[in-house]
């Protein structure tokens, strides 16, 4: 059919048209504002999806005005780390994407911005569907764990982290992580979200007779290190530590 639509163009050229590469096209969308701000005071979620691998990144913002700065930083960092050039960025018609700051940056680095028509979210369907998947997963995690709603950002982060490593891309029979990193993901370190944890209290001045440990709840991983993120109900803060013992059985 497409052979005829394209005026009987040779099949080699048609095949080249449908070839995809990493970071050739990025889908972006901003979700929010949330009714409840996160534990760090954030209300918006910026979601970025690579069209080729379906690898997803999430960023949490205080306001939609921060979107331009985060997008520019993300593109610069990933282009340096992966040695790949972003060709196109597809967004909706919101002012957080359609502004002079981003237009100037895209023009300087040679990126084409594709903007969907107003009130036509299906034109940016890849990231819209991923948004819905992440939010539904986060809602399920928080409901099952019976945790406060201000931990929604932690739930979305861990949902994104896991989906990048477990969801199989139908075209390649590989996960997004495998397509990005050329190796299979290691999931041996995965823990149950909201499981009880006992962490070393190395964030306070502990005197001789005070307890050196604290009880918390596991809420996430760190990409840059082996540390994990623990919500401490006593201090109502998120702590990052490697000195943690997990109890995944007691609350099953």
Automatic annotation (TrEMBL):
Matches recorded under Pfam families: rve, SH3_retrovirus
PROSITE patterns referenced in this protein's UniProt entry, alphabetically: INTEGRASE
Domain Integrase catalytic span(s) in chain numbering: 15-184
One MF annotation (Gene Ontology) recorded for this entry: nucleic acid binding
GO biological process: DNA integration
Gene3D superfamilies, A to Z: Ribonuclease H-like superfamily/Ribonuclease H
Name of the protein in its database record: Integrase catalytic domain-containing protein
Species this chain originates from: Tanacetum cinerariifolium
């Amino acid at each position: 059919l497409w052979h005829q639509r394209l005026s009987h163009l040779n099949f080699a050229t048609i095949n080249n048209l449908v070839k995809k590469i990493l970071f050739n096209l990025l889908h972006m969308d901003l979700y929010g504002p949330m009714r409840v701000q996160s534990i760090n005071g954030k209300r918006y979620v910026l979601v970025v999806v690579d069209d080729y691998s379906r690898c997803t990144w999430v960023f949490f913002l205080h306001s939609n005005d921060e979107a331009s700065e985060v997008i520019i930083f993300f593109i610069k960092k990933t282009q340096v780390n992966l040695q790949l050039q972003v060709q196109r960025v597809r967004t909706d018609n919101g002012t957080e994407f359609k502004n002079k700051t981003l237009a100037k940056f895209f023009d300087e680095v040679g990126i084409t911005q594709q903007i969907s028509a107003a009130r036509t979210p299906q034109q940016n369907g890849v990231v819209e569907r991923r948004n819905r998947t992440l939010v539904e997963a986060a809602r399920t995690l928080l409901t099952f764990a019976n945790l406060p709603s201000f931990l929604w950002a932690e739930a979305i982060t861990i949902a994104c982290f896991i989906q990048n490593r477990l969801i199989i891309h139908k075209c390649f029979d590989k996960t997004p992580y495998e397509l990005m990193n050329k190796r299979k993901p290691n999931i041996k370190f995965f823990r149950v979200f909201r499981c009880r944890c006992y962490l070393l209290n190395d964030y306070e001045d502990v005197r001789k007779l005070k307890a050196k440990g604290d009880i918390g709840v596991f809420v996430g991983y760190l990409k840059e290190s082996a540390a994990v993120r623990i919500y401490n109900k006593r201090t109502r803060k998120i702590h990052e530590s490697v000195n943690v013992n997990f109890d995944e059985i007691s609350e099953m």
